[in-house]
Amino acid sequence: MFSELVAVGTKTGVQVFDLRRGTKVAAGTGVGVGGSQGFALTDTWVATVSDAKAMCHVHMLNRGDTGAKLAFPLPEEITCVHAIDGGRYLAMGARSGRLLVWAPASGRLLRSWDGHYGAVTALASSGGALVSGGEDAAVHVWVLSQALDADADAPPAPIATMADHTMPVTALHVGALPLLAGRGRVYSASRDHTCKQWRVRIEGSDDGDAEGEDGIGGSGGRVVLRGRTELLTTLLYPAAVRSIVVDVPETRVFAATAAGLFQTNLFRPVDGLSSGPALVALGGTSGSVVSDEHIAYPSAEADIACVALSLDGSLLASAAAAGGVVRVWDTASRQCLRTLSDKSLPAGVVQLATRLAPPQLGGPHATASAGLLRPAVLTETVIAPKLSEISFVPLQRVMQQRGQPAATAATAAATSAAAPGSSAFDAPVRARLGNTTEDVRAFEAALGCAGVYSETSRADAALVQMLRPADGSAEKQIAELVRQTERLQRHHARTRRLNDELYQGAVSEWLASRQKR
C-alpha cells in the first residue's frame, strides 16, 4: 500500500499528516496560510504566502523541521500560489489581478502580466497550460510558452476564456487529460452556488503574418494556438461553493459548500436498453442545470471550507470552516473513518492538499541494485536520509536580463523606480529566452567541429565505437562489476559485524568495572 500525505493549511502554519494512518509526519509553523490556495506543496518543500503582508516562507518537508528555511519579500500582496510541474515553476496571483511566474531553482522572475480586473483567486495547471480565475468571475487559459516569452511585443493574451459565472471564482480543477492535447476539461466553482464543467478544445493554425527565423509552420509563419470552450454542465448547489475536487476518471465531483459536503456523480445508469444497463453523462449541454443529483454527507459539518481527494479516489478529506475539524471519509460508504486532531488546527483550516509521500516522510524507499541480477545482498532497502539541501532560491522582485548579474539588475530597477510614474516592480528589465540556433553553434564550437550537426553526430558515433570493448562484449564487464560489488558488500557486512562485537565487548567490560566499584 502506497503512502499519501494530506497537508492542512491553517492560520498558524502547515501541518502534514499521513492520510491513511492519521499520524502527524511534518509541520511548518511561524506563518499563517493566507487563503484557500495559500500554500504550494511539492516532494521537498512547502511555499506559503501570508495574507498579512507580501512575504513568502519556504519550509522543507522533513520530520522535526518546523521553522522556515527561507523568508523573503514579494513584489506585491499575493492571494494564491501554485506549483507547476512538480515545483519547476511557481505561479502566483496578486490582489491587483497580475499573474507572476518564477523559477524557484534560480529565483528569477520569468514574467508578470495583467490577467484579471480583480484579485486572482484560484490557479491550476495542465502540462504547458496555466488556468486562472479571479474576482471578475472570469476563467482564463494561458499557454506558458507564450506567456513566458519576454521578447513578445504585446502582453500575453489568454487562448480561451470562460465567463459564464456571475460572482467571483473560488476554485479550479483541471482534468487528467492535458489541455494542450485538445480534449481537456476544466471545472470552475464560484460564489454563485454553481460548479461548471467546461470542455476546452485547443487548435493550432499558421500565422501567415509572422515571418522570420523563429517562425514554425508550413509557410514560415508561427503556429498560433486558439482555444474554443464549451459549457457542458452546470451543477447548482444550495450555497456558495468554496472548494471542489474531481477524481482522476472524472466521474465524481466533491464540493465543499456553506451548506455542507456534497458528492455529484457525473454518470448515472440507465436501464431498459436492449444492450442492458448503460451509463449516460449528467447534463451534457450548455443549458443543463443539475440541482437534485447531489449526495450529501450526513455526518459532515454544516459549513465546509475545503476538500481534498486521495489519488485512487477512495478517501476524501474535508475541513470545517469553524472549529478546525478535519475528517477523512470513505467515498464508497460516505462514512467518517477518522478525525485528524492537533492543537494548531482549532485556529481554522483554510486549505487541504494531498500527494504521494516522498521517501523522507515514509514514501517508497530506494533499492540498491546493479543490473538485472539483483543479488540478495544488494536488494536491501536504503532509508532515505533527511533532506539537507533545498532547490529553492529567494524569489527576485524584478525580472533579470539574460547575462546580467543580479546586482546590475537591482541597480537598473532602482534607477527605473526613481523615474516619475514608475516603480521597482515595473522596471523595464526583461528576461530573454535562449536562442536554440546559437546554442547548437556553441555546442559544435566546443567540440572543435567546424562542420554541420550531421558531421558532429558522426564524430560522436565514432567516439562511441572507439570506447566499445575490444571483444565486443560489455555484458562480461557488467557481470564482473556486479561480482566485485557483491564482494565489497559482504566485506562491509563482516566489518560492521566485527565492529558491533568490539563495541558490545567494550560496553560490557565498562559496565562490569562500574559494578565492581
Automatic annotation (TrEMBL):
InterPro entries cross-referenced by the UniProt entry: WD40/YVTN_repeat-like_dom_sf, WD40_repeat_dom_sf, WD40_rpt, WDR18/Ipi3/RID3
Organism: Coemansia erecta
WD repeats: 113-142
Domain of life (superkingdom): Eukaryota
Pfam family for this entry, one: WD40
GO cellular component terms listed in the entry, alphabetical order: nuclear pre-replicative complex; rixosome complex
GO BP: any one term: rRNA processing
SMART domains: WD40
Signal peptide start-end: none
This protein's UniProt keywords: Repeat, WD repeat
Entry protein name: Pre-rRNA-processing protein ipi3
Upper lineage: Eukaryota, Fungi, Fungi incertae sedis, Zoopagomycota, Kickxellomycotina
Family: Belongs to the WD repeat IPI3/WDR18 family.
